[in-house]
Amino acid sequence: xxxxxxxxxxxxxxxxxxxxxxxxxxxxxxxxxxxxxxxxxxxxxxxxxxxxxxxxxxxxxxxxxxxxxxxxxxxxxxxxxxxxxxxxxxxxxxxxxxxxxxxxxxxxxxxxxxxxxxxxxxxxxxxxxxxxxxxxxxxxxxxxxxxxxxxxxxxxxxxxxxxxxxxxxxxxxxxxxxxxxxxxxxxxxxxxxxxxxxxxxxxxxxxxxxxxxxxxxxxxxxxxxxxxxxxxxxxxxxxxxxxxxxxxxxxxxx
Length: 254
What we know:
The protein is about 40% helix and about 20% strand.
């Protein structure tokens, strides 16, 4: 069932504005070239099949669809932000995309070989369980789920504590819901939804430092500075589960 509470709808409208006003397809493609993102594309593609279709659920402007299509994967996409899909279709009309909510996908049961979700499930105030079960439904037995989701790292915990101490909402924007999940929580969620956990990997350490602003940000759209990349590389080697911005989970449908 698709959630219909007010916060859910405000979050959806926020994404419409983000894709239309703050970002472009070329911006998103450039982000995928950043070290913090490109490293992830060395991890999960070997788990995916090139025999059947791979869905990116929450595909936005479609940069990931293009990158993986160029690597030989059969890609399709969907998003509940319709304007983003129109922008993508104007840029490249060769990859099928649908307006759809990840809680009620327009795909047959046991029909897809892969399901990708990058920065989506953290935006549901009711939790990710229903969306994960829907992901499991559309995958073939043995199909692969790949997801990334923010982790409650030390910087995130500090910011939330400061906001709570000052009487503010822990949300940076009251019209945009976002949460974090621990590794243990994610492993439990995947198992309960019908997946065996294959990989739990801390990622995007440099982006944690980007969130501090100042010298950690380079000019451009979400660009990390050389200092942020250095600090991120050091944190990845010494404290991987303290400074990771997100966690990559890879699961296989039982």
